[in-house]
Amino acid sequence: MFGAVQMEGTEMTYNVGGVDRAVRILLGIVLVVLGLVHVVTGGWAIAAYIVGVIAFVSGLIRFCPAWALFGVNTCPMKPAQQK
Asked: Of the residues 6, 22, 38, 73, which has the maximum number of CB atoms within 10 A of its CB?
């Protein structure tokens, strides 16, 4: 349960580790709140919402598609242990 998510016959491995996950979730919350309370406005607010939501969601699901493309993995578990 703690290494991979089974989704309709395919398996998604995690590539976001603990510290990275916490930073992404915190950064996502901060960016969205900055936009909501109008600390940033206009195009910057839209960018804050988009980046904030992407950071938050990738932290929650512990998977970053961009990092998968580049082969980056901050998850401490080896792929064999993720199953």
From this structure: 73
Residue 21: inside a domain: no
Core vs surface per residue 57-80: b (16+ CB within 10 A) or e: ebbeebbbeebeeeeebebeeeee
45 in any annotated domain: yes
The answer to the question of residue 6 being in a domain is: no
Residues 36-69 pLDDT 10s: 999 999 999 999 999 999 999 999 999 999 998 9
Give how many domains the chain has, as a whole number.
1
Burial of 28 from C-beta contacts in 10 A (0-12 / 13-18 / 19+): buried
Distance CA 14, CA 36 (A): 30
CA 27 from chain center: how many Å?
A: 10
CB 82 within 8 A of CB 75: yes
